[in-house]
Amino acid sequence: MTAVVTGIGGFLPPRRVTNDDLSRTLDTTDEWIRTRTGIRERRVVSGGLSTGALAVEAGRRALRSAGTGGVDAVVVATTSPERLCPAVAPEVAFRLGLGTVAAFDLTSACSGFLYGLATAAGLIGSGTADRVLFIGAEAFTTLVNPEDRATAPIFGDGAGAVVLRRGEPDEPGALGPFDLGSDGALADLLAIPAGGARQRSADGGPGHGAVPAADWYLRMEGRPLYTQAVERMTQSARAVLKRADRSVADLDWLAGHQANLRILQAVAEELELPEERVAVNIDRVGNTLSASVPLLLNDYAARGELRAGQRVLLSAFGAGLSWGSTVLVWPGIPAEPVG
Ligand code: COA
Questions:
Q1: Could you give the domains of the chain?
Q2: pTM of the model
Q3: Contact 45, 141 (CB under 8 A)
Q4: Is 37 in the pocket of ligand 1 (CB under 6 A)?
């Protein structure tokens, strides 16, 4: 039994924030952000929109693309959950009218989509579910310090979703082998120190001891992360191609996590993959963590650039550290523009 992609959807919050908008409140410029990251603008939640609502909209579109009103499980990958407890997936399932199906969240930052795909595929492979709605949803800009010029320009909000069904390994849309990995020794390179159990027990709980304001926000060491991202994504891509008995020449597209255009270009160079086969939408959305790869796939499919029968390598890297890759032949499924 293999998990096959049978629907795709995406959703972006309407509020658009350009680099020029940011440079009005931060010591930065459009030129710096564009040349160092490839980002021109990002979407940001506002007006009460949050992770759950983004997930519901993306999920609705993926179900429509799959032509189905029912699934056996809902999995949401997010590193910006609505609340520490409970998971948002049960609420998303409820709001989509999917009933009392299995539903849970999964956290793996920017590699959340790859870890989630492998998990959802496992639910199908084990016979636990025939159909799974899997959503990557993030309102991560709420966890980024608006006064920190090193992180505020990089992230954006959004959600992307796929429906997986049980199928055969040689069908278009069949997920190939996975390569997943992690390195917890480098966990502090990208972390939000406060808000979790470690901080609560260290300061004696709510009301005991003051937590510095900056600790509630993301801390990032950009340089070493950059190096790790290039190395890990390249190694992971090579590993999964080997497992799938494929070569770089077989690939039509690299759909890589959109953290930095220069990271994607460096990975392509290492792999000797022509740059025109690197899918890119970071200019319009920034880094949307676990929503990044499905938003990219949806975007390219909706514009007819990613076509049925083309072979795609999906690869992502992020906090943890964590990374993952898989390959698939794109299926002939409808995709709506996300706006
Ligand atoms: N605007 C203007 N200048 C800025 C700036 C901004 N927004 N952010 C940093 N700078 C300055 C720095 O202060 C530094 O100045 P200095 O040379 O006077 O000290 C200079 O620009 C270079 O900073 P540095 O952080 O070394 O830049 P960089 O080329 O490494 O680019 C990142 C920074 C964050 C874009 C890059 O390191 C990166 O993308 N890293 C990976 C991040 C990532 O992938 N995170 C998510 C993981 S999924």
A1: 2-167 (3.40.47.10), 178-186+217-329 (3.40.47.10)
A2: 0.96
A3: yes
A4: yes
